[in-house]
Amino acid sequence: MSPLPTRIYGNVSVPDTPLITAALSFSKAHSTPTVHNHMIRSWLFGFILASKIPPLSARDQELHSLAAILHDVGLDPNPTSPLISTDKCFEVDSANAALTFLSQSSEVDEKDWDTNRKQLLWDAIALHAVPHIALHK
After folding, report:
1. What is the pLDDT of residues 18-34, one digit of tens each?
2. Do the beta carbons of residue 77 and residue 86 sit within 8 Å?
């Protein structure tokens, strides 16, 4: 994967792609300010930590960004939101919402988001709060 353009956000260097910008807007539209800010802090903190761990430099930074920015959108405060189900936990709703976001975004190049990459995004979000399950993946 070629290097992504970057920008400084909250004094942290992060990737800057149209898809990440769209995810930031999607997150803000489907979150309370507190939850949105939490997701942004998670994104920034993740990039700070990854910069200190050399083996993580090879990770998919766009996927990392989307997973962090969208990981709690299943907590959408709108009770009629199409992102919220009545039968799933918010982690699964968040993971499903991330895939919905990808399918609806005009910024997605389908050749860049194959089934495996989408599954990684879904797994990262759905399993973020249940590490004991993620260990079995």
Report:
1. 999 999 999 999 999 99
2. no
